[in-house]
Amino acid sequence: MKVTDLELAHFRNIDAMQLHFGEHVNIIYGENAQGKTNILEALWLFTGMKSFRASKDAEQIQFHQNEARIKVSFLADNLEQSAAIHFEEKKSAFLNEVKVGSVAALSEKYHAVIFSPEHLSLIKGGPHQRRLFCDNALCQIKPRFAQFLSKYKKNLVQRNAILKDYKYNTSLEMMLDIFEENLAQLGSQIIIQRKKYLEALQKQAAAIYTGIASGKEKLEIDYHCSFKTENEETLKEEFLAALKNSRSEDMQTLSTSVGPHRDDIEIMIDGISARKFGSQGQQRSAVLALKLGEANVLGEKTGQQPIALLDDVMSELDEMRQDYILHHIEDWQVFITCCDPHTILRLKEGKTFHIHQGKLVQEST
């Protein structure tokens, strides 16, 4: 997949802008708070996912305006296509000038991955951030996975609610059995899909990290799961037994102590925890490798290589690691924001866009 053009109107601090992108590396540079990240945000929103900036839709409309519009032209499935999103009282989306039911529907044709400084929480944050990364990636590849997650969470809430009342009403045991059966069924599927995905991601991310680190370091991904068995039916039985065995303890804490909602994913560099011992540059490189690895896995599964959106990726990386990003990510389209104008001087091939106060100052090849 390749994006050819982007049009913005009243989006964030951008009054009106039209950009014509190159097929490979596109660098968007300028000082802080000028609108660089707004461009990446617009490109990301066509995936149908929420903004990586965790903002409300109303905040994406320029001050003193009632609406905002973004439109993208792109190549996918060897066809020229377009998508548009209108922000008014309600958000509406269009694919090839035909209105679709929701922005999420655009994800059938448009694919992207995003790296932003907030994604450093994959390394620095708690287990929830790493589970969320894995689950969101799986939802793009396997839409049914989102249903498993939703049903699992509902059953988890119900079990926890029963645990609260069980000591006052033991007749709830039958209901507890039902919700535990559901949790074991759904949870075993979630765990197996996570394991399969992380195996595929390990191959891609490790190879990318080796390139970023010029072969001097090795990246590994380890899924910390409560259950070791690989067989789905055996896993379900083991999970169900663990739920029943933990009832007494769980009634004290009013929470469910076992299951995929408790799992973690450890990222290691040369066999050592990146979270505990990695440098800032190593942690940033590891997250970048994970995100680019995510893109490659998504490309393999969908047949369309997604675009890569890299926000402020260059800071805290040495020139060797920056060089890999600029010159060794081949055969797909990359968008990079940065503040340092010296970065563009090292770009051998690609396009650059200078942004100042929400305006395109210069576009160069």
**Overall CATH architecture of the largest domain:** 3-Layer(aba) Sandwich
In the CATH scheme, what's the topology name of the largest domain?
Rossmann fold
Q: What is the N-to-C order of secondary-structure elements (H for helix, E for strand)? A: EEEHEEEEEHHHHEHHEEHHEHEHEE
How are the strands of the largest sheet arranged?
A: 2-1-4-5-6-7
Integer count of domains: 2
Write down the CATH class of the largest domain.
Alpha Beta
* Quaternary organization: single chain
Structure summary, number of beta strands = 15
How many separate helices? Answer: 11
- Helical residue percent band: 40-55%
From the N-terminal CA to the C-terminal CA, the straight-line distance is 21 Å
Would you give an account of this structure?
It contains 11 helices and 15 strands. The chain folds into 2 domains: 2-111 and 305-364, P-loop containing nucleotide triphosphate hydrolases (Rossmann fold, 3-Layer(aba) Sandwich), CATH 3.40.50; 123-274, Glutathione S-transferase Yfyf (Class Pi), Chain A, domain 2. The two termini are 21 Å apart. It is of the alpha/beta class and 365 residues long.
